[in-house]
Amino acid sequence: MATERPSRLRVFSLNCWGIRFFSQLCTQRYEMIGELLCQEQHDIALLQEVWSERDFLFLKRKLSSSHPYTHYFKSGVIGSGLAVFSRHRIQDALLYQYSLNGYPYMLRHGDWFGGKAVGLVIVDVSGLKAHVYVTHLHAEYSRAQDEYLSHRTVQSWELLQFVRHTSCGADLVVLGGDLNMHPQDLGNRLLRSHTGLRDCYTETDTFDVSTLPVTCLFSLFACPVFIGIITVCCSRQGCEDGHTLIADNHFTKKQDLVPFEKGIRIDYILMKGSQRVTMKCESLSTTKGPVADKPFPYSDHEALTAEFALLHSEDSRQRGSSDTLAVSEQMEVVAEARALVKEGLCQTEALRDKAMHLMFGALLLLLLPLAMAFLPCSCSCSFSTLGLLGAVCMVLLLSGALLYLLFTTHIKVLKETEDQMMLTSNDLQTKLTGCQLSGSSSLDGSPEIQPLSPFKREE
Amino acid sequence: MATERPSRLRVFSLNCWGIRFFSQLCTQRYEMIGELLCQEQHDIALLQEVWSERDFLFLKRKLSSSHPYTHYFKSGVIGSGLAVFSRHRIQDALLYQYSLNGYPYMLRHGDWFGGKAVGLVIVDVSGLKAHVYVTHLHAEYSRAQDEYLSHRTVQSWELLQFVRHTSCGADLVVLGGDLNMHPQDLGNRLLRSHTGLRDCYTETDTFDVSTLPVTCLFSLFACPVFIGIITVCCSRQGCEDGHTLIADNHFTKKQDLVPFEKGIRIDYILMKGSQRVTMKCESLSTTKGPVADKPFPYSDHEALTAEFALLHSEDSRQRGSSDTLAVSEQMEVVAEARALVKEGLCQTEALRDKAMHLMFGALLLLLLPLAMAFLPCSCSCSFSTLGLLGAVCMVLLLSGALLYLLFTTHIKVLKETEDQMMLTSNDLQTKLTGCQLSGSSSLDGSPEIQPLSPFKREE
């Protein structure tokens, strides 16, 4: 276990709500965010919804001394909105744009244009290799009738696969961002159970009392009399239950919170250590709407700040045992996700059928002006009328074709995700039962395979 | 160094040219490919251009005994065309669709619809963790005027980043596929220099003499007299210079080979071992157009088969020294790639400007029928004529808007790639000079940072 005085790492995450000409008081809020970051000197700041590159460049100038290393991830039409500011050197960056992200014709939602993605930066934190992920998932516009649920679930799957396969070799892993999911939502459980990432809010002993020295806190916890005081302290200083969308925020639309009047927790900082480094979340804090000496909050979301202790560790037993325990939970949650993706597949197939009907309808309608053109006696329509009708049919036909292409690509993504989930299920089953015959999607026969001379893993 | 009798791994790669109703003799060729794979019993077969799922399912049934583990990667409208058949258990799969892949309006090329991607399967090869990649990059339709060069370079960059960041923890890494690049093309050099993957064709001592037993080969090599015989044997049995597009192939269009009459090498099997396993390519062979006892070849591409020896190894010195040597080469090649991506960026910005002009033109044209509608005296046009004109303007406006969106997303991808390349350049520079102040794209100031208590990597 820990053998040395711990190093510290402070991570900040905020959805900046930076839609130029739409988000209220955008320029002033970026000024405030810049001031906060300059002043607080977090090691790493993870920002979402920095939609305008001009705003990113403003922050970059403002933070050039405090956070000299930055990366702004670009994707989609106006996205990805993801930015990282770091006090430590960024060695490398990689972007994975989610395959499903809403529909281009849903202009009033607009997520499609944002090119939602997960960005990875590899940061050298005093000799430690930190893999830091920042992400923003598709918004939830209606909890009762969430037409984007399958999209968000696929995004969660792609996020967890990306983290799983790119975090090997990291000394520490941090993920921050706006997941647009409640703590116990399927996508969130999927992410945590399959990556081993832990939620700072549930992991920390000291939510929102980060101003108190840690030694003092431990002594408080040791004495039952003071527990009440700590509770009071938490509820007074921070958002209840770690909410990041709250009614007290000047910019929050109250109807968006119904039926969660107290607030919603959709922004997260998740973390995990490695066999070399134990990562402990010593404190987590949130802003709470209004800002002292300022007329309005930083954003319509609350900001998160996590402080980690990094300890040398040679003991991997704990990790191993939790891995074993997690397998059955992983299987359950992946089965649930598969069912949801299948449902999304059926819905998308129905949409594709509708697009095909639109195409066929437009084709039939196109026959009408053609027939009228060849039968001039039966109709008094002018050439222009026929042309207009033809042009309308062509627009309908093109729209149908574009929609058909869109839904076909969505179906491909959903099928690919389902296949990957099945593969993972089978692999987990194999782990559980030790049966070497299960596995891929296509174990149809009873193969008689001559194995290579065995290499045994030393794990 | 190697301490045990080596295990063997045989890998097959083929671009199947499986465009239903377009590729000649598709059904018959899939029959032949299935027979070959059944008979040869490669450990892993990597197929590209299996565009139809029905053809994949045919192969899956046919190979259910010999290759019981499969994964078919799905992406784009009709893609990705990538399939893996394995004798060993596939544990997991992950897909990365390239961000740039031609243009949807280039219907006669059609790459855009293929959703070109790189697929990763993690295969348990007798206790070894093999990361096996299969990919297919954008085609080159004209070497003299290659309008897709920047797209293919971005794809190469994304491929190398994906391999770099997902291959950590693998005991062995194999990449097979149709890269659509000549051996010394920029994208190919970029891929090899930044991933450490080695080309089986240049690595193997015994190209196309795989039918001879290895022990016999070693004894032949020991005797200088027999070197001439081996050379003769190579040139007689295999494609010259490892070409995979050759004039001798029944399906190859001869004009596609000009000015490379002898053939082109665009299909590859690349590989690297790990600190635990030394991977040696013992032989590489290609098909050579016509197939014995068959009326036509397997495809318009030639198939590759590589045989690897896998040896236990504890000696990482060689790897370390080659890493150091490679840094300057990596810097050169990434600088070359950055220049090319910048050029692509300028071209795409010009295309976006054209799309904007189209939009403005259509808007101005739209004013014409509107003006005519409000000035009935000055024109004898009917309502229908105005409507037709309006509809045409709307179609032009929509087309302009769609193209504008398309090119805007392309610009985002090109900028992101350039930023990542700059980050990599700076990191390499830091490695070379040891200067801790260089690095990210945004080292603007002279920061005074208090470091954490140092963790030193033990590498």
From TrEMBL, chains A, B:
Topological category with respect to the lipid bilayer: Multi-pass membrane protein
Localization (cell): Membrane
GO biological process: sphingolipid metabolic process
Domain Endonuclease/exonuclease/phosphatase intervals: 13-278
Classification via InterPro entries: Endo/exonu/phosph_ase_sf, Endo/exonuclease/phosphatase, Sph/SMPD2-like
Documented EC number(s): 3.1.4.12
This protein's UniProt keywords: Hydrolase, Lipid metabolism, Magnesium, Membrane, Metal-binding, Sphingolipid metabolism, Transmembrane, Transmembrane helix
Chief localisation class: membrane
Family per record: Belongs to the neutral sphingomyelinase family.
Protein name in the entry: sphingomyelin phosphodiesterase
Species the sequence originates in: Cyprinus carpio carpio
Lineage: Eukaryota, Metazoa, Chordata, Craniata, Vertebrata
